[in-house]
Amino acid sequence: MNNQKNERIKNMNETTLKERTEKLLEIDKIIKRLDATIRPAAFSLLQDYVLAGVAAGKEKSKAVTTENLGSEGREGFFSKFNHDKPSDNVLLLCAYHFSQYGSAAFTTDEISDLANEVGVTIPNHPAMTIKAAQRKGKSLFRIAGRGLYAPTVHGESFFKATYKVSKGTQQKPQPEE
Q: Percent of the chain scored above 90 by pLDDT?
C-alpha cells in the first residue's frame, strides 16, 4: 500500500517538475529580453504562472515563503544597519554582495547600482573607499582585474564579524553582450 502511494507521489513530482521546467524555460526567454535591472521584479510578477495549477498546501506556501524571504532578506539586511558615514555604507553594500556571491569580484558600478536600488548613500567615488579600506592594518579588498575588486581573507572575516553574514554561494549573473 505504501509503495503504491510513494510511486504516485514520485510520478506526480516528476510531472510537476516537467511542467514547471517548461514554464520556467518559457519565462526565461521572456526575461532575457528585459533590462537586467528589472529582471528580478519581472520574475516575481510571473511566478504565479509557474505555480499555476498547484493545489493549495505545503508546496505552494513553501515557494511563496522562499520568494518572500528573498525580497525581505535584502530589505531586512539593510534596515539592520544605520551608518552615518557614506564610506561605511560602501562596506555594507560589499558585505551584502559577499553574502550573495561569496568572494566573486565586483565593480564599483555594481555597488553604486545596489546603493541606488536600496536607497543607501555612498561617496561619489566608491573605488577610493574600497582601495583604502583596512581594518587592523590589513586590506579588506584586492584588485581582481581592471575595475574589479574582491574581498581578501581579512575582508571576508570582517564581513562575517561585523555584519553577521556568511559566504554566499550564488553564481553572479553574466552581463549580456
A: 46
